[in-house]
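Lab notes, practical 5.
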Amino acid sequence: MVILFTTLKCQEWSYEFNGIDSLYNNYGGFALIYDLYSYDDDELYIGGAFAKANSFDVNSIVKWNGDTINSFSLGVYGTVFTISIYQDTLYVGGDFPHASNQPNTANLAVWNGTNWQTAPIGKPGGAVYDFCVFRDTLYISGNFSTISYVNYDKIAAYSNGIKINIGDMGMWTRALAVLNGDLYAGGYYGLRRHISGTEWETLPVQTNGDVRDMITDTINSFLYVGGFFTEIEGVASYGNAMWDGFNWNTMGDYCTMSPMYQALAVYRGDLYVSGRHIGEGEDIRLSIDRWDGEQWDSIGGSFNESILSLEVFRDTLIIGGAFTLSNDIPVYGLAKLYMPDNGCDYLKPRINTWADTFYLEGGEVDVNLYNNNPYADSWEWDFGTSQTGNERNPVHTYTQVGEYNVQVTVTDGECVKTANKTIYIELGSELQEFEQIEMQIFPNPSSKDFTLIVNLPDYKNAEIKIAGLNGHLKSDIPVTGETTEIVTKGWSAGTYICNLFIEEKLIKTEKLVFE
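Output from the prediction step:
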């Protein structure tokens, strides 16, 4: 029997999982679903803490194809937190002493098609929380200090038979994600970006608490971050925020509790997150909430316990958790939500710049403009002058002071959306001592590091921000003296933009060619 609840938005709740009659622990206890993993939209892996599926012993991991379930020998004796397929092999990570009594399978195990075995990278000395496959490499994060007795501090990587040391995190690392070719790690310390080798950069601006889950909207180049925090630089952003490669975007105080560790999903282009709201009389409501890019709304669906995981599978949002009731219907930790196609709402174009105000020098100034939709069909720009362009990230030269409304129209299939941004062009002479500031970078081009030379009357509050041609931040380096080294370790060959800021004002811009 399928039970549906329909709202004005035609959303449909369902609790029918063909082939799954129940998931539960021994003695009839409820299941805990910590991770849902869709592989090629063909198979859904369900992991957590449960003993049985229907009447079969499965122990914390099953596979569901929409009609039937499959188990993996005697399963994993403990808790599965994360699941991934890497090079056609199933990996599971969590907090467990062994998988089906096989040796050296604590906390991390792989399925060889017939049985569990030790992962190629070895046995972690603590819990594994998340996987990320990036550039044919499997990244592993958790709360371990060693793998097979070799030091790996909360993060490690493996590729084609080679174990990779990618640095130390110091504290537990809960989440991994990729945004525009950069690997990010979230954990107790906040959010970090991988530079290269063993080097990581902690973002200069942080949430005021830890990061516990992340997910990327690849269409719009947004990295959604969930965790136990309430603000960013004094601005309310309860449990959720968005990093777009340029800036943090706060998301208000609607969600009054942080999402759990795998409880973020991008569905129909919107962010879905489990919410825990306290209403009048401190009545607690557990539900699913949606962020459409501008505001929150609750799509309903009451639950009696926490939602722990969300995943999109076959055009439907699958919900897993510790709940035994949803919309007053008895369930076993699983529910489905179908939302109708929202047309072109998934496309959320933006115009990004490194400043709003630019200064003429020698009668002109080049302004780098960036759009956030890498996979669109076309971009049509109106620069607020008589000129237009059709590149994704153009550079436009302004020669007159004034206020300019810049517009980009993005086309993706039948969807056409427009974004606007106002920029200001002012005379350089209006900025104190502007004309006396000279910036030189050499060698340029370079196959190694660059050296920046700049003469400033006061080096207080001066910095350079290095960006790729897509505009996303590569390095943020304080300028504390006449000479500043720009370290290029981990850079790919190409053109970069060096932006000099003084007192948060963009003063100079220079192209860097890295060979």
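Observations recorded by the TA: The chain has a mean pLDDT of 91. The CA atoms of residues 57 and 227 lie 34 Å apart.
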